[in-house]
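Sequence in, structure out. Go.
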Amino acid sequence: MTEQSTLQAIMNTVQKRKGESWYIADILITALEAGSMAGGDNRCGEQCATSAFITVAKPGDRKPYLDLVIFGQGKGKQNAVDLLRIKYDKWKRKNGDMK
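Output:
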């Protein structure tokens, strides 16, 4: 379950980034981080997330051009959103910015 304040932190981040003309993938990863920093899913304990993913496709794509997943981090392990950020940054260095 997520607290209302966590959802509001996510929405605030999305609204702010949308006005800055960020790529959708950057907005999504930043929104996940905002939710995590605001407490995340309280079922996951202090790590805030045991799984996290980001998937982005363009209209007409047969498959997503971005599909990153961190699944099933055991409770007490590293926050899945933090691991997803690392994976995303590596993907972005390899693939560059994509609209």
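Check: The radius of gyration is 14 Å. The longest helix spans residues 80-95.
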